[in-house]
Amino acid sequence: MMKSRVFHLLILIAALFVGANTLGCMKKVCGNNAQNEFRRCPDTDGSCGNYHTERSSGEIIDGVDVRCHVGEPIYAPIEGEMYFWRPFGGKREKSCADHGVRIEGTGQWQGYAVHISSVKLSFYGGHVEVGVEIGEALNRYCFNDRGQHDVEPHVEIKLYKEGKLIDPTHHLQNCMCTGQICESNSRNTLLGDPFKTDKRFNGVRGWDIECQMINDDNEDSPRVPMIYSPIAGETVGRIRLFTDGNGAYTGCDNDGIFIVGIDDWLGFEVRLYNVKARSDIGFGRKRIVQGEPIATRLGCDNSPDSVFLEVRFEGRVVNITDIITADNCKMPNFPVF
Ligand SMILES: *[C@@H]1O[C@H](CO)[C@@H](O)[C@H](O)[C@H]1NC(C)=O
Asked: Which Gene3D superfamilies does this entry report, sorted A to Z (predicted)?
């Protein structure tokens, strides 16, 4: 028992320091460009480095140009398997810039691949974790002595999902995805339809997020998974779903929390059912960072292997399926209420 408590505390401390990776959000790619800013648009020659815009060459590129000076360190923006890759397909006259990296995503990035060029790699393969330095930026225009030298130095990033190019913009900048919510479900896999009503939880539309018990090595019985805050918030309250006529029904299975958004998440309110707030958090006004372990799943005899999430924006229940599944991390345009 004692051993198990210590073990859980260690997990909790580790999680507090590491934080849950933010599902759908890439980390810094280059040097000190922490916000993954793109080169200016329009640039000196009228070209842009935004997704699906015209480059100096006149080509429309389904990638983005992240500002980056020659020689600056390049970091893996996702975890995955790394491969050397030639952005100019081995063209001899462009060989000085024909170096890049392909990272095939694993874990939260399974199914995605990212291409970065031009990069002089420090090593040519193997597994990389997010944030690991993999090389340094090369001059993409070393082969061309006309015009393009004046545009802001950059690396080009392309993102593939299931083999198709997708827009990486909001996976790189102002990334408004909720991140992983349950410890045992790294990709927010949903049970049943997204944004469905569920009679077990008020009948308000939301998401039934799979959340299985966790079997740790050296532990006899499975433990309840941790729950990470999907938003940055300030107030955590406890909610009881059912009442018994005399006031509150205090059954084991009757617990949930709500969080009121702050900062980027201002206007949002989140409710999570089948969870119990961490006792050391307490209630009242307290800042919570996104991804912070704020609760555990309930472990009652009849607890389902999922948690139910309900989201409101300015008081209305809203459909934010894409930012939960990380299909799109752009702040949705809610209708004006
Ligand atoms: C919620 O949003 C998703 C993704 O945009 C969409 O597929 C789904 O049909 C929407 N559900 C409802 C009930 O509006």
From this structure: Glucose Permease (Domain IIA)
Q: Which CATH superfamily is domain 53-172 in?
A: Glucose Permease (Domain IIA) (2.70.70.10)
- Position 234 scores a pLDDT of 87
pLDDT at 163 over 90: yes
Question: 2-22+176-325 has which fold?
Answer: Glucose Permease (Domain IIA) (2.70.70)
CA of 196 to the centre of ligand 1 (A): 9
Using CA atoms, how far apart are residues 77 and 6, in angstroms rounded to an integer? 33
319 Cα nearest atom in ligand 1: 1
For the residues of 53-116, what is the DSSP string, one character each?
EE-TTS-EESSEEEE--TT-EEE-SS-EEEEEE-TTTT-GGGGGG--EEEEEE-GGGTTEEEEE
Is 332 a pocket residue for ligand 1 (Cβ < 6 Å)?
Answer: no
Query: Is 322 touching ligand 1 by the criterion CB < 6 Å?
Result: yes
Output the residue whose Cα is nearest ligand 1's atom 12: 195
Residue 225 Cα to ligand 1 midpoint, Å, equals 28
Locate the domains of the chain by residue range.
2-22+176-325, 53-172
- pLDDT bracket for residue 7 (50, 70, 90): low
Q: Is 321 touching ligand 1 by the criterion CB < 6 Å?
A: yes
